[in-house]
Design brief:
The chain starts with 17 loop residues before the first strand and ends in a 9-residue tail after the last strand. α1 packs across α4. The strands form 3 sheets. The protein has a two-stranded parallel ribbon. Strands 3-6 form a two-stranded antiparallel ribbon. The chain has a two-stranded antiparallel ribbon with strand order 4-5. Helices cover 40% and strands 4% of the residues. The protein is mainly alpha-helical. It has 12 helices and 6 strands. The chain folds into 2 domains: 177 residues, Orthogonal Bundle (Peroxidase, domain 1); 131 residues, Peroxidase, domain 2 (Orthogonal Bundle). The structure holds protoporphyrin IX containing FE. The site of protoporphyrin IX containing FE has 22 residues, from α2, α6 and β4. It comes from Chenopodium quinoa. Belongs to the peroxidase family. Ascorbate peroxidase subfamily. Belongs to the peroxidase family. Classical plant (class III) peroxidase subfamily. Its cofactor is heme b; Ca(2+). It is found in: Secreted. It is an enzyme of class 1 (oxidoreductase).
Amino acid sequence: MTTITTSHSIVSGPPPPVIKAAKNATHGHHRKLSIDYYAKTCPEVEKLVASVTSEQFKAAPAIASATIRLFFHDCFGCDASILISSKLGSKELAERDASQNKNLPIEAFEGINKAKALVEGKCLGVVSCTDILTISTRDYVHLAGGPYYEVKKGKWDGKISKASRVPSNIPHTNATVDELLKLFNSKGLNMEDLVVLSGAHTIGYSHCKYIINRIYNYKGTKQPQPNIDPKLLQALRMYCPHHGGNEDIVVPFDVTTPYTFDHAYYGNLEKNMGILITDQALYLDPRTKPIVQSLSKDKQKFFKAFAQAMEKMGNIHLKRGRKHGEMRKDCSSHM
Ligand code: HEM
C-alpha cells in the first residue's frame, strides 16, 4: 500500500481521505504506471506541482474549473497534446486552436507551463507534461472541495497535435445521450462514467452561446426547451439576451453551489436546473436517470466514482516509451 505524502498541506485542517488508485497496472515492457513512478528520479514532483496549483488557486480560483476542462479535452487522447502551440507558418493548426478548444482559458495552459518549469528546475527532462497536467487537475479538484485521489504516473507526451482531430472527439452541446454514449464508449468509457464525469459541471461556467438555442429556440421551435425550471430560465435569459448580448458573459453551471466541487450538480438536474442540453438529458433519459438519482443522494459515492472515472479517462490512448511518446521540456512545443 503506498502512502501519500503529497499536496495535503495545500489545504488547512486534517488530511482528507485519500481515494486509492485501482490496482490494475498497464502491460508491456515499459515501466508500469505507478503512484511512486518518480520516487527515485523526482521524489518531490507532487509537492512542486502543489506549490504552483495552491498559489494559482488562491490568486484566481477559476483556474480549477479551467484546468479540469483542459484535462478533459486533452484526455480524449490523454497525452498533453492539447498544450502544444501551433507552429508559425505551418499548414495545420495544433489541437489547442480547434474551435472546440478556443474557450479554454489561457491561464490554465500557463499554470501547467509554470508547474513544468518548476519541476524541470529540480528534475531535468524526467517528468512528462501529461503527468503534470494529471497531477494539477487532481489538485484543483481537491482545492475546489472535491476528492483527493492518488495519481498513477509514468505517462509520456503525445507526438501528434492536430486541430482536425478535435471535432469528432469532443462532445457537442446539443448531443443526445445516444451520441454521448457512442463517443464515450469509443473511448472505453461506459454510461456510468458519462454521468459521473459530467458531474465536473459542479463548478465552472458556460458562455451564453452554448445555451442560446436551448433557452430561446429549442430545435427550431422558437420556444425554450420544455421543462427548464421557470426561474432558472428567467435568470438565464437575463444574463443571455437573444440578440446583441456580450459574448464574454458566462453563467455558472451549478446554480446552487457554483464554486464548490460537490454533488449538487445532480440535485440540480432533478430540479430541471441543468445548464446544457447534455446536462439535463442525463436526467431526462430513463437509462441515465437512476445514476443521477443515486449520485445526488450520496456525495461520497460521487467522489469515489469521480476519482475512478478520472483515472480511467486519463488512460485513454496512453503513451509510454519513446516509440509512441516524447518527454517534452517545454509543454507547448515538441522537442
Ligand atoms: C458530456 C459532454 C460534455 C459537454 C457537451 C460539455 C460541454 C461544455 C461546455 C459547452 C462548457 C462551457 C465552456 C465555456 O463556455 O467556456 C463546458 C465547461 C466545462 N466542462 Fe464540460 N462538457 C462535457 C463533459 C465534461 C467532462 C467529462 C468534464 C470533466 C471531467 C467537463 C468539465 C468541464 C468544466 C470543469 C467546465 C467549466 C470550465 C470553466 O469554467 O472554465 N465537461 N463543458
